Amino acid sequence: MVETDRTREPHRRRSGTAGGRARWLVPIVTAAVVVGGVGAWRALRGGPPPAAPPGSIPAPGAASGFNVLLVSLDTVRQDRLGCYGDDEARTPVIDRLAARGVRFADAVATTPLTLPSHATIMTGLYPPRSGVLDNGLYRLADEHETLAERLADHGYDTAAFVGCFVLDERFGLDQGFDLYDFEVSEAGYRRSQPDFNERPAEAVTDAAIRWLGERNRRRPTGPFFAWVHYFDPHLPYQSPLESQPAFAGRPYDAEIAWVDRQLGRLLDELSRLQLTDETLVVLVADHGESLGEHGEATHGMFVYDATVRVPLILSSPSLFGGPLVVSDRVVGLVDVRPTIEEVLGLPPTGDIDGVSLLRNDPAPGRAIYLETRAPENQWGWSPLHGLRTHTGKLVIAPVPEFYDLRLDPAELDNRHGDATAEALRLQGELAVLTRSWSGGDPTARAISDEEMARLGALGYLRSDPGRSHRFLPDPKAMVHLVEASTRAEALYFRGKDAEAADLAREVVDECPTCAQAVRVLAFSLMRLGRADEAIQILRDAVADARGTFLIRSLAQAMILDGQLDEVADVLELYARTDPTDGRVHLLRGDVNDRRGRPDEAIAEYTRALELDERRVGFTARERIERVTAKLTAAPGAAD
Q1: 78 within 8 A of 286, measured Cβ to Cβ
Q2: How many CB atoms lie within 10 A of CB 34?
Q3: Domains of the chain, first to last
Q4: What is the pLDDT of residues 471-481, one digit of tens each?
Q5: What are 76-86's pLDDT values in tens digits?
Q6: Which of 23, 232, 403, 481 is the most buried (most CB within 10 A)?
Q7: pTM of the entire structure?
């Protein structure tokens, strides 16, 4: 049902209204899309489109010739925005978008992970079909056509401005973009977690504004498709606004408020370029943040609504007469592409999983597929799969779950054992759906069979990497170990090595597959002078085929212990597992540096810089400078 803002729950604050009548309502789904084009429409059709009654759905092709601006907010819960009912939120820009557009009350992401969620947006495919199942471990194959490629084929200029290494071009989302813009800021460099290197929202906005200005000066004759991604609300929460009294004790909300301001700058630039009346904005998040619900501090472990329910707003002052709400259906990120294609008047892309949201008659009982592979890939626990309808949710896990969202929106009362009709129906639908996916086997691994064979040849492989998920622990029963492992790591970074080792060992005793705790235990023992014990712990972990993280940890520990010859095979395995990871060359450079081979060390550090600048660039440059300084200071060095 499409409602005016006046029909919203009374406790929610009003966002205001926009003057004029609504010309059309485009229930688009996921990423912030700005589709600009009243002027283009007039040029193509010879005049403005006729106004339609408020609350009506636009006809296919209503936005023919429009620009498209896709804005995705990372890690933003739906209920932390003012227009979604949070009276303490400081999100006036987003609220104004809702006040002159349509807000989808029940939009969900398929997975609480950044890369696979964005792959779904770009392809209209669920993760088992796109092949992108987790961050960092998968790449969108060239065989999949993206939304950017489709629009480029129809004459669009295309550009992307992303905020985090998780969406680096190596993972395949650059397909179809003339410009794929990502640079790591010095403040956003995560020395201990370079896979999450980022740049702040203000830098992302600066880059997008520069591109819009340069494009305007070229006097383009066609439309554009631009994607702008803001990563800031992701942990660690560090906002320029966090010191303000309004955000005392609320660092996450301060991050969202800062992104709201930067989005305002971007929209102001559209206004300066006189594009506002020709622009349709759709705002969305890739996933939410648990913030302690269900024992999860952040996201990725579960598929509860705290991390999969997302904001989705479609806005344009020239298309909508006032705030509208679509509240009678569930929609998904998977629907974004087909909806954009239909509203632009493009022929529909066949064989995708999403549907266009231009229809005003939602399919009864429609379900959105849910999954997360992070529990298995990061912790050795069971992945989760499920279906989400407007009224209920089924989650397949070692202990299955079903929630009646009408009575239990917080998902606290598992009714799976009650065998409700909806639960049984969803179980059947999920079974049919997963059988239909040729590449949907949940036993997919980050390490290939070739790498597994290599592990065996090196004497490291002991366990069966294809073990059944039926025997993996349920994340619900294990999630408390994430918090304990994080506390152990914090103790390690504070130099409390004995305490860190004791706590990490407690975690490892209960969960030998908890890689974070294994690493903390091993490196705490290294500091305590127990290198042999530490290295054996890491050898055992690698022998159980637990992924590249611990292979890299083993290599680091061996280098620190002076095992410079023995580490060669481990580094070779690491390189074969991920040939694009510049940290292999950093470690090889460290080996050469310790052997007194500075020229070879510099060559390896330089290779790391050339191969993987956005992940290891700052570290590589530092090490090149350090070794070069030693060479210069050495006796007999040239003046």
Answers
A1: no
A2: 29
A3: 2-359 (3.40.720.10), 374-435 (3.30.1120), 449-633 (1.25.40.10)
A4: 899 999 999 99
A5: 999 999 999 99
A6: 232
A7: 0.86
